[in-house]
Each structure stands twice: as structure tokens, then as C-alpha cells.
Amino acid sequence: MELARYIGANYQPEEGLSPQPESENLASKEPPIKITRGFQVSNGCIEFFVRIDNNSEHGLFDVAVELELPEAFELLSPKTVIAGNISPHYHEAVTFLFTCHQCTTNDINAAVKYKDHQNKFHIQQMPEYKIESCKYIMPQDLSRAEFEAKFDKAPQKAWDVRLKEGTSQEEVFRRIQEQLHMSTVTASGNQIELAGRSKDGRDVLYKGVVKNSEGGMYLSSLTVSELERITIGIACEIGNSLKDKIEQVSLKQTQLLQKQDQALGKLDDIPALLEQYGPKIEEAIAKFDDMETYLRDHLASDWEKIRGAWTEAKNGEISKKEFAKRAITTLGWKVIKVVMGRFH
After folding, report:
1. 176, 244 Cβ separation under 8 angstroms
2. What is the pLDDT of residues 8-54, one digit of tens each?
């Protein structure tokens, strides 16, 4: 579908492009020329046109339009485009091609330069023209309204991911952007919205919100696409990406704890720890079926130091109390913090 939003009811573009009824005519009193601006989006690029109507009784000569763009836009055509000579009561139009590097709302400036019939040189500055780039550069060149309407009845997948303590919102958003390779539509506060194409060319919309609750920090995500399998696929990609991040954070925390323990040496009061936390370790072993996996994942390389004791306890060779004693004696606060975290 082609998005075409034209401004200027009198403009008759070539190649079947039709203007909308809305118009903006920028007429000058001296000299008597009329400037009409507008644009369409095609293949991810903005085609910006400027039409010059000669309403005088004399010809205009060496007419040229010079475009000024903000840094957010990249001009793909020459900065100055020649319109040539314009006969009385005729018009000429020039087209500029540019794209954007980021979501932006910016003013576009241009100047029309020409000579009159007396060979006097004139410059007429075009009033600023505002374009909200990400409102229009969408998959398949849909407008923002068309894009969102397209997904009103499309398959949706919503899911929450609990973020590891210490994971920043900025890091989460960065990971999402890296994983999806989409154009960021909005990113403000704790929300991010992206739009793009799947690997097989389907339109995809992603919305994410980072929120805090009593249970911790969560990423609440909504993915919408034309096909259910794409929606689920995007969900898996984001989930795996965040999982990798969580594992990295967990490893860093484990390494930090190791350094702390090395600095503390044997300062821990083992008997006191056994008395206070030994029963909790026994309770965790009895209560949670996944304790082996949980300990292995959260203790990382330290798991090997108590794996033998766990195997003996699992086989009934030693008691749960004995395992708790060996674990606390070997790892101290490390294993206590991991086990206590399982209760939350």
C-alpha cells in the first residue's frame, strides 16, 4: 500500500500521484509566484516536492530550488535542483529524496531562486515545513494510522519477563533494539515502541514497558504481527535475549561474591550460620523439586564445590542437615543468599 500525503490542491503530480483535498498555498505578493509543497513516502524514502507556479505575465528564468535539511535526515538527491524556465501561467515541480536516521519531528527549509524578465535575481524563502518522519516511514509505506489499524485484529502475544536485580531499563531497551533491528517509533520514560519487518517480509509491531512491582522489575511486552508464528517467534527472540543478559548479570554477581569472600577469608561465624540458616536449606531441599537445577544455575562454578555432597544427600548417603552443614562450611554466605532467594 502506498502512503501519499500531498499538500496543495492545485498540484497535479506525474505518474498517477494524486493530492489530497487539504492545501497550503504560499503565495508571494512580489513577485507573483506561488509555491506548493508536499511529500509522499516510497520504499522507505521521503519524496519531497516543491512546485512553483508563475502567475505573472512574464517568464521566470533559471529557476532553482535549494533544500536545507536537519542532521537527522540524509539527502539522497542533490541539494539544489534546477526547474529551468517557467512561462507565464505555467508551473514546474522539483523532487528531493531523503531518508531519516532517527525518529524525529523537524522543519524543512527551502529557497526558490530565479531571474525575472528584467534579469533581476530573486530569492524567495519557503516557510518552514514540518515532517514527523517516523509517523510515515513504516513497513510497506503505511501511515501511522493505517499501520496501527492493520494490527487491531492481528495475532498478539503478551508476556512478562522478570528482570534480574541490577538490570537497567536502558540496557533492556538496547537489547530489544539490537535483537529486532526495527525502527524506533517512540522511546520515552519506561516505554518503547518499534516497527519493522520480519525476516520473511511481514509487518511487526513491538511495544515494551519496564515496570516495578513488589516482586521486582519486569518487562511487559506486546508483539503484534499478521501471523501467529511470527508473533511467537519474536517473543522467543526477546525472551532469549533477555535470558542471556540475566545470565551475564548473575555471573557478574557471582564473581563479585567470590571476591568478597576471598577478602573476608574465614571471618564468617560458621556455627552461627549453621544454626540460623541450616534449617532453611533443609526446608528448601524438601519443598522445591528444582533445587538441584536452581543451585547449579545460581552458584555457577561454585556448584562443583558442593555437587558431591548434593549427590550423597540425594542418594540418601548423608542427611539434608549434613548437606546444609557442608554447603555452608564450603561456600558460606554464597549458598545462603542463593537458597534464601528461592523463597522469594
Report:
1. no
2. 333 343 443 333 333 344 444 555 788 887 776 655 567 788 888 89
Q: What is the pTM of this model?
A: 0.35
Q: Is the dihedral of CA 147, 152, 157, 162 positive or negative?
A: positive
Residue with cell 546444609: 324
Q: From the centroid of its chain, how far is CA 195? A: 8
Nearest 5 degrees, angle CA 297-CA 303-CA 308? 130
Cα 304 to Cα 299: distance, rounded to the nearest angstrom: 9
Q: How far apart, in whole angstroms, are the C-alpha atoms of residue 113 and residue 123?
A: 5
Domain ranges of the chain: 3-136, 143-258, 266-342
β partners of residue 131: 106
Tell the CATH topology of 143-258: TATA-Binding Protein (3.30.310)
Superfamily of domain 3-136: Gamma-adaptin ear (GAE) domain (2.60.40.1230)
Q: E strand or H helix at 284, and its extent?
A: helix 270-287
